[in-house]
Amino acid sequence: MTPLRAVKGMNDVLPDEIGRWQRVEQVYARTLSLHGFREVRTPYVEPTSLFVRAIGEVTDVVEKEMYSFSHHDDALSLRPEGTAGAARAYVEHSVQTREPVTRWWYAGPMFRAERPQKGRYRQFYQLGAEIFGDGGPGCDAEMIDMLVSLLGELRVPGVEVLVNSLGGAGTRERHRDALVGYLTPRVAALSPTAQQRLKTNPLRILDSKDPRDQEVVGGAPSIHDFLDAGDRAHFAKLREYLDALRTPYTVDTKLVRGLDYYTRTLFEIKGAHEKLGAGSTLVGGGRYDAMVAGLGGPDVPAIGFAAGLERLLIASDLEAPAKGVDAMVAPIGEATVGAALELARDLRRHGIRCEVDTRGSSLKAQLRRANALGARIVLILGESELAEGVVQVKDLEARVEERLARGDAVRVVLDRLVAASRNVDARVPS
Ligand code: AMP
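Above: inputs. Below: predicted complex with adenosine monophosphate.
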């Protein structure tokens, strides 16, 4: 029988890798909480119409990449990103009636039927956040600065921030008309995809990696020629605040992103080029001031970002935390298994991570297993120890062995582990 395999582009994360995932998630949760964000969890499945309305009908995500299905009479989709669901939840629960500004973060899987490659999967994890109710450039700068600090803490080398302003809805419309006016006489020089996009979503042509399009786009009207006074002031303030924070950034007037909802501030953060390739974005984000009202909610401005967790893991120089357990309880002979289980329970009650081998393995095999698990202490319980009410405690690193009264064993093990962790801490430069 052919063994079953996971769906292409959807990966298992095995325990050997999970330590780094959890470290990144912990750093993320702490950073976001330091900035006043609280976690929100929204469903993985939403009505398809939510994504069509929030992300835009003529985007790659909605046109080609969603896992959509119908169930009874409902048209549903696996969420391709987190912002639409968060905005839907914000509107559905009338959150604006309870607080003027809402700061939410989320972490979880997203689903897009893209061509899988390094750093691009069909089920991937995003760490994201949204601020609802603050339209000013101050929180935009704070968000970008927070992300730069986060990437620093995750030890991502070569972090580079790109910012742009797309202006409000009116600005985008005027720019779109000018862009179509410029591109239409040059249509023959564009790639077939861009020719198609000229009719559906001309802004995306600015983003094209095709050299034919880049050549044409080089002389295209810039969105910055169409920003109104309010947009300009907003962008100037954002830059002023980033300068004040000494957060380095580059203005990229050609920056547009794949999702239709952005207004005014737009940003991307790249890093670890050698590991990820220059084109690979770690974090994408921006304002979407019209989305909440577009979903039937109040006129509340918003900004958010999402970072790909797998890409952060490729980019990050953080090491995996120590694995396994602190101690191993080794019963020798069937008669000692019950007492060994009890001893292990005692150790765990004191916060000592331990395993106990109840399979009747030899002492040699159990010591090998202790090594493989990274256990520092082995507590050996043979029939003679059981009869005498003692336990043999072996410190594999200090290479000492002592015979202790059963009642003293937990305290001694705890002391040894605490002393060992102090030595480790003392070696870490502050
Ligand atoms: P987006 O939601 O498209 O703005 O993407 C935000 C971030 O999510 C990107 O910068 C990537 O880090 C990550 N990301 C997007 N799509 C994928 C994917 N298919 N696989 C892995 N990561 C992704």
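DSSP finds 16 helices and 16 strands in the chain.
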